[in-house]
């Protein structure tokens, strides 16, 4: 059971992080998509039955074949972002799927941390990257009116969601209260 799979020339799938990346691009995968790709990599060039994928990825949760089909479609789109990928996911009608690879997968060995590289382009199919605030011993406590207006407009635009969430919480509390005490 490996953590990193080399999918092509300098294209690596990190199964723990659920990312496919090169020196220039990163594509984040959903957890189920990453689990499916890991299963396909572990058994490359062998047919994996749909039932086995359902069992190992979704467990006892009942899902339709559409969920698996959508996940495979997402994986194909994610792999298509990289020109250097030397493998492809093949559908075996009425049976399952197979990851066709020219060479057996080898684990990309890293000791503690991956080698440092500069990310030039980030592509993600499911999540977007945002700037994280940095902690600094000398925090700037000056507030500009533009920043306050930006935050206020965000709250104003999303206040409906906040109200709905609060109403759901209150309704849940009262339901629980009546179930326990009455």
Task: Give a written overview of the molecule.
This protein is α+β, with helices and mostly antiparallel strands and 182 residues long. Helix 1 (31-42) packs across helix 2 and helix 1 packs across helix 3 (65-80). It starts with a strand and ends with a helix. A hairpin with a 4-residue loop joins strand 3 (19-21) and strand 4 (26-28). It is flat and about 60 Å long. The protein has helices at 31-42, 50-58, 65-80, 145-157, 159-181, and strands spanning 4-8, 11-14, 19-21, 26-28, 48-49, 87-92, 96-101. It contains five helices and seven strands; from the N terminus they run ββββαβααββαα. Strands 1-2-3-4 form a four-stranded antiparallel sheet, covered by helices on one side. Strands 5-7-6 form a three-stranded antiparallel sheet. The protein has two domains: 4-101, Winged helix-like DNA-binding domain superfamily/Winged helix DNA-binding domain (Arc Repressor Mutant, subunit A, Orthogonal Bundle), CATH 1.10.10; 145-181. The longest helix is centred in the C-terminal third of the chain and has 23 residues, at 159-181. InterPro entries: OmpR/PhoB-type_DNA-bd, Sig_transdc_resp-reg_C-effctor, WH-like_DNA-bd_sf. Keywords: DNA-binding, Membrane, Transmembrane, Transmembrane helix. The chain crosses the membrane at residues 161-181. Residues 2-101 form the OmpR/PhoB-type domain. It comes from Vibrio qinghaiensis.
